[in-house]
């Protein structure tokens, strides 16, 4: 039977305790981008932390296209635990969730609720439902799913992780419903090069229907991936 452990927002401490954190740097190289130049390199900085309040994830992308175009994009996503369940429950927690998306000429605000799950074999599985407050245009809805599944092949460490974003259509301005399923399959090289923290090499694959809500613009994009956690 599920047992409610606490109602987080009624017992927030004045200062969050950091329970764990992780930094990473990634490099991507792909040749099948849609909207703009097809060939791009992307450098990404990521930071994620778990706290006594909930947690936070952020990343900053720096994109360089072969035609000389450059772009910076980032997201900041805090979560605040509302409900936490005991070890017997398949639901880990319920949280208030938010995301800020910052691009070259826009800032979008997303707010909603998220659920964390703990299926066997997963490091994590999260589902968030947001209302999107768009900088220029009508608001819409977004669902975000994130996951990570570690596994071994011949004693080598592998990780399959990623996210799926689905955004609803905005009929008044001709924006189509969009689905971005981006996944990474990567092998940990760290044990073979004397590193304690993970160093991954692998592939990122982007399966994006109606990119940026543009009807009929579908991206199928494989990227070479190198990612170092520190």
Average per-residue pLDDT, rounded, comes to 93
3D shape: globular
The biggest sheet, with number of strands, parallel, antiparallel or mixed sense and barrel status, is: 12 strands, antiparallel, barrel
Largest sheet: spatial strand order: 2-3-4-5-6-7-8-9-10-11-12-13
Number of helices: 1
Structural class category: mainly beta
Number of extended strands: 13
Would you list the SSEs in sequence order as H and E? EEEEEEEEEEEHEE
| Termini Cα gap | 39 Å
Global Rg = 19 Å
- Strand content is over 45%
The CATH top-level class label: Mainly Beta
As a percent range, the share of helical residues equals: under 10%
Low-confidence stretches: 1-12
Under CATH, the homologous superfamily reads Nucleoside-specific channel-forming protein, Tsx-like
Tell me the count of domains: 1
CATH topology: Outer membrane phospholipase (ompla), Chain C
**Second CATH tier, the architecture:** Beta Barrel
Q: How are the SSEs placed, and which strands pair?
A:
Elements: E1 4-7, E2 18-30, E3 40-51, E4 54-65, E5 70-85, E6 91-102, E7 107-117, E8 124-133, E9 140-153, E10 156-167, E11 178-188, H1 190-193, E12 199-209, E13 219-229
Antiparallel strand pairs: 1-5, 2-3, 2-13, 3-4, 4-5, 5-6, 6-7, 7-8, 8-9, 9-10, 10-11, 11-12, 12-13
